[in-house]
Amino acid sequence: MLPNFAYIRARTKQEALNNLGSEGAHVHAGGTDILGCARAEVFEVEKIVSISRLEELRGITRSSDGSLRIGALTTISEIAQSPLVQESYPGLAQAAGDVASPQLRNQGTLGGNLCQRPRCWYFRGDFHCAKKGGDLCYAVEGENRYHAILGGDPCYIVHPSDTAPMLVALGAEIHISGAAGSRSMPLQDFFVLPDQDLSRENLLEPGEIVTEVLLPGASGIKSSYRKIRERGAWDFALVSVALAVRMNGSTIAEARLVLGGVAPVPWRAEAAERALIGKQPSPSVAADAAAAAVAGAQPLEQNAYKVLLAKGAILESLLAL
Amino acid sequence: MTEARYYERGPIPETPEPKQRQDHWTATKVVGQALPRVDAYQRLSGAAIYPSDVNLPEMLYGAVLRCPHAHAKVQSLDTTAAEQMPGVRAILTAESPGTDIPWQPESEGPASVLFDSVCRFEGEAVAAVAAATPYQAHDALRTIRVVYDVLPAVSNPQAALEPGAPKVHPDGNSSGEPSTYERGDVNAGFDAADAVVEETFAVPFLLHTPLEPHGCVARWEGDKLTLWESTQGVYNVQSQTAAALDLPLSHVRVIGHYVGGGFGSKLAIGKYTLIAALLAKQTAKPVKVFLSREETLLCVGNRPGGTMRLKAGAKRDGSLTALEFEALGSGGAYSPYGTGLFDWQIRDLYNCSNVRTKGQSAYINAGEERPMRAPGHPQGSWALEQILDALAEKLGLDPLELRLRNLTTVSQARGGIPYTSTGFKECLEEGARAFGWAAARARPAADGALVRGVGMGGCTWIAGAGGPPSTAIVKYFADGSVNLNMGASDIGTGTKTVMAMVVAEELGVPLERIQIEHADTGTTEFATASGGSKTVPTESPAVRAAALDCKEQLLVMAAADLETPVGDLQLHEGEVFSSRDSSKRMAVKEISQFQRRRTVVGIGYRGPNPEGKATCPFAAQFCEVEVDKLTGEVRVLRFLGAHDSGRVMSRLTYDNQVYGGIVMGIGFGLMERRVLDEKQTGKMVNRNWHDYKIPTAMDVPAAIESLPIEIQDLECNTTGAKGLGEPVTIPTAAAIANAVYHATGVRVTEAPINPTRLLELLAAHDQRRA
């Protein structure tokens, strides 16, 4: 059962921002997860501020310089089905299409997908874990098959988003608005590891909202997204691989490889990228890159398979180039 | 412990012999057809009123406060604040008068009370509230202050039996002496074997997840109680509630016209039933108590998991010489049947003179098990069907061939009495032919990352004969329309449709002119609960007998008008005619005696099963999988279920059972497992539908084929039907495991099979080969 909370459906962005500053206020966009969190008492919900009416935050537009603007309220379905996205950023169309289930994709938004809270069953469940102000990350000694193998300490959540790794691989920039004004940053820098700040997963301050994501032009970029999960729908990635490369003839000129499901943030595998750049794709180059990507992995008791899985999925993605 | 416990959980009295001699159907006009369900429109349009849809005037909402710890003692409980909350009408705790009701889920298991001060599993009921709205009830629960003394918990049967383990009950954690079975000389059998294989297997605890949660609406009128309960058996609810509340059966009316799934978890009442009744009594208002999904996953059902060791020996020709099986499981905190029927496949399915089995069950701090679609059978099948494949490989035999060399026509586990029919051989042979087994098996292995394999498994099911008691009533109205009155629940399997087809077969009345009244202890006749794959073989002979009784009475009346021997007369589509003299015919509604009487009432009883024989369904299932060796993903490409369940009574509901059972088995094989926080709190971490993964449409192949093996069984009962609902899910997961082995060379002995397990096994396998 839901606890009591106030509900405000803002008419303007400013009204939303004014209302979001208070303690216990949460933004509502697609609403696919906030009510579940409230019901399960994952965090205090005093006030829900809906931005769903803010049409200016919706839609996909291409600029003359070839870049693509995706409003934060654009639904995941719209991204998956957008001809602009499918044509220039097939990896993003794939990632969006792999999110959750058709109903959730129709309702869920890009901003929500990027800012969703982790799915760790201790965090979501009836456990006073470190992320919720307790003393303990239960995953360290507990049921940790779905937890982080990279960047975990002191909290072993994994970032649940499918679109985030792909957008990081594509070099996206995120735009944020708050009462004090607007700011933007590379999406990669938006996410924070638990050792930087245990209580949150990104740099969004209370009272701020994501307004849009900007993708640079994709001329000459090949992108792909490969998600491995236990169940074919409504399941988060055990591991996912977002890959964006630019070829120069038969040589890899640029490469960005970002892993989902393995770390508390979309995990950019820079060592793997270095192993690719300047090389011609081949099974041995792919194997070297895959090994480099997980070189620093520190699996917990039940999730060593993620090392093998990440390697396998990277190999598969690279061999498909 | 009787077999019936697993599908019945209630006493089984006898009913009288049916009056009519009933010839076996040779050709049928309606029975066996693929006809839409009689209640399809109601179910699909939302017009059907499920118990959870029942809303009564002035109805209150009950909610249950549950222990958040796996093991704890209630030190104190303060409801002062809750009593002041808006809308609150009643609060029940262990201190409330009338709540000291004994609660003993299993007669051989430990006893408890409705609100036990020691909570032995997460989710145990501690208190309850009735309020004007569900939100007020839950808000009130939040204000009840409980001080718990949190006790150490134990979460798996191995740990539970170790010395020094936290004690679930004062006497310890063993659920009693192991259950054992032995025939022949097992040691001699292994000595005589040319090949012996042995393996340890493990299966997880699975959770029941029926679409409609458990619950009921309770209403008192004076000292009479009416319950609308989501149940598989209204008479079980009636007798158990009457006993708990010390009421005469006549004062407890239970209505369960629709039920949104049960899978065995709704054969018995829950504490919620009594809580609703007590809250309704105290407030003098109807009270609705329906559990949340989380509550159902914690409290009202699971299928025992555990470990199994199985050793099998065979001669060079494939004939089995010995089987030795040992299992360790748990029925949770209160059921001693943690390994119940795990060994049945091993004991009964394949011909083997020397068999020894042992099952040890331990109490753990988790919810009590409830029967789940083929109790014990899929677990044992997971071991048996895999060990047979391993044995076949060692002997250089095809897995199918090994099974064909170990057939039997007697029930070895029942002392060697014959089956009334067995189509197991046909299931194996015709199933393999339709599946294209030989060609698929012979296909050369692919050398890329994507590899394919095929696997199969066979099974029997302990029950599926059905049997007395059952009483059914058929009323034939003046206009030729018919009312069928029976106590059985239709748990979504199509019972109503099948029974209407039986009536239509005998009385020549179209289905749309048959009205069905069922699953109401106030207005229908006694029936056992719908479970154990026994509803069709139990009820269809009773319904047929009632229809025949009705027909016989009409023909006797017509014979007087037509002045012809009754033996010459037949009834079809509202007309009576003589098979000898075509001039002798009349419309039923013109029968003079019938015109005066307006209604003819036929009564039918379920006769006894044949003595000294066993009636069981059999099956073989075949599947093809694709494994991505780089990622460990397993995709089921196609499935075929060849099932001998006697006569196909209704082709659509028959196929539905096959599809549904295979889907459920895919869940067991590929993704489902209850996860307890074993090393820390003992609490369930995946108590929701996101984290407890059941298959979606994306996980199930479009290519599932149902191949009925229709063996005529002239002895089992008067319709020739055997049970189907359970065998359809018994060998499914094992067939997948065998297919994965065929594809990869890796035998996955612990379910489920997915990347979280398979990748490391594949890597170890590659290392061994390198």
Number of discrete domains of chain B: 3
What's the overall average pLDDT of chain A, rounded? 97
- Taken as a percent bin, the fraction of beta residues of chain A is 15-25%
Q: Segments of chain B where pLDDT lies below 50 for 5+ residues?
A: 9-14
How far is it from the N-terminal to the C-terminal residue of chain B, by CA? 51 Å
The coarse overall form of chain A would be globular
- Structure class of chain A: alpha+beta
Briefly, what CATH class of the largest domain in chain B?
Alpha Beta
Q: Which radius of gyration of chain B do the C-alpha atoms yield?
A: 27 Å
Q: Please outline the major beta sheet of chain A.
A: 5 strands, antiparallel
Provide the residue-averaged pLDDT of chain B.
95
Helix content class of chain B: 25-40%
Q: How does the major sheet of chain B shape up?
A: 7 strands, mixed
Strand order of the biggest β-sheet of chain B: 3-7-1-14-11-12-13
Q: Point out poorly predicted stretches of chain A.
A: none
Largest sheet strand order of chain A: 4-5-8-6-7
How many β-strand runs of chain A?
12
Q: What does the model show?
A:
The complex is a heterodimer of chains A (321) and B (770). Chain A is built from 13 helices and twelve strands. With 321 residues, chain A is α+β, with helices and mostly antiparallel strands. In chain A, the strands form three sheets. Chain A has a five-stranded antiparallel sheet with strand order 4-5-8-6-7. In chain A, strands 9-10-11-12 form a four-stranded antiparallel sheet, sandwiched between helices. In chain A, strands 1-3-2 form a three-stranded parallel sheet, with helices on one face. The longest helix of chain A has 15 residues, at 305-319. The termini of chain A are far apart. The mean pLDDT of chain A is 97. In chain B, helix 10 packs parallel to helix 18 (732-744) and helix 14 packs parallel to helix 15. Chain B is built from 19 helices and 30 strands. Chain B is globular, with a radius of gyration of 27 Å. Chain B has a seven-stranded mixed sheet, sandwiched between helices. A five-stranded mixed sheet of chain B has the order 9-17-16-15-10, sandwiched between helices. Chain B has a four-stranded mixed sheet with strand order 20-28-29-30. The longest helix of chain B has 28 residues, at 535-562. Chain B has three domains: 3-30 and 466-605, Aldehyde Oxidoreductase, domain 4 (2-Layer Sandwich); 51-151 and 209-299, 2-Layer Sandwich (Aldehyde Oxidoreductase, domain 4); 306-464 and 612-769, Aldehyde Oxidoreductase, domain 4. The model of chain B is unreliable at 9-14 (pLDDT under 50). The interface between A and B is large, with 33 and 41 residues.
